[in-house]
Amino acid sequence: MAPDSSISKLVVIITFISSIIVPVITDNAVLTASDASSAIQLEREALLNSGWWNSSWATANYTSDHCKWMGITCNSAGSIVEISSYEMDNNGNAAELSQFNFTCFPNLITFKISGTGFLSGRIPSEIGALSKLQVLNLSQNHLTGTIPSEIGSSRNLFQLDLSINILNGSIPLEIGNLKDLDYLMLQGNKLDGLIPSSIGNLTKLTGLNLSLNKLSGRLPREVGNLKILELLYLDSNNLTGPIPSTLYHLNPLIEWYLAYNNLVGPLPKEVGNMKNLKILLLHRNNLTGPISSTIGYLNLLEILDLSHNRLDGPIPSTIGNLTNLTSLVLSSNQLSGLLPREVGNLKYLDSRSLDGNNLIGPIPPTIGYLTNLTSLNLGYNQLSSSIPPELMNCSQLQNLVLSHNTLSGIFPSEIGNLTHLRQLDLSHNFINGTIPSQLGNIPNISAVDLSKNNLSGVVPASVRRIPKLIVSENNLELENSTSSENAPPPQAKPFKGNKGKQRKIVTRL
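^ that's the sequence the OP posted. Answer follows.
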């Protein structure tokens, strides 16, 4: 066959095929564009049908382009990818979340309506159909009902915040399917039941907050699988049993809140593994046994509260290694022995409460190194000897409580150095001597309890001006008159438990 003939036939074939294919491609392109336009129109109608974008705040600068409406962000194709607003208002009425048709938003990545109490009602199960959703924040609303199990289908979620609502029921097992989660915040609801062990599947979590709920049962050991967790808040629930040993290997943990539960068992030496901890709150549980000396390894710790447990034994001297500590609360335990002198190393300490224990011996003079201290409570112990004069170097003190001990010696006149003092309680001790006039010269002193000591002499006029002064059960002299023009009016009752003549002194018996 001649070459020209073959070429002619080939041209005819190509022309024929093109006549078939090109219209098909063109028709498909038209259909695709039409579908996209319809989908975008569907999104716009869904916004309007929710009723959330009809009020004045949304339509003040009304435009038909919904991508320009408040709280709406679209992609380049005009499809909504983010709905985010902290300013929604429904004329003071909460809007039903069920009014929002989530199925119309296949490209939604972020849904964040938080902090205004705008939303009410149940979380619809359709929310699980949002396969591209990465951020879901419905916090601080009035949502009720349970967390739908379908939420486990939104597997691209990396932030889930349903906190501070009125949600009830249990945490669904399907939550463990959200393996890309970085933050899970469910605090401040009425969730009950067990913490699901499937939560241990969320190995990318850096923050977990389940506090302020009604969760019960044991803390699952699978929480120890969360190897990059930095923030763990499980406080204010009804958790029972011991703290799983696996949790003490969460080395990246920075803040750990387990307070206000019913946890039992010891605080083991493995607590020293958690060397990145800055906040450790285990108060209001039923923990027993001694405080391990390994707690001294937590040298980044800033706040330590082990109060209201049943811990016993001495306070370890290694606590002096916690040189970044600003708050130390060990009150209402069964701690015994001497108050270690190493506490003087805690130069940043602002607040310290060791009341309600069985501590003995003198207050160490090293306490005078705590020049940032604003509150010190050593009441209800068995501390003895005199008040160390070095304590008066803590010039920032505002509250000082040394009551219910066996302290003796004279009332230090250096008390006047504590120029920021507001409240002083030295009651129920064996302090003797006279009340120094310098006490009454402290500018903002408002409450002083010196009752049940061995104080003697006359109460200085400057001290009598303290608004709330309790000096009963001492050996103070009382007189009928006073030359002080600023003295308060005479009271009907003499100082209870004191002797001598009645004096114009205000006492709160």
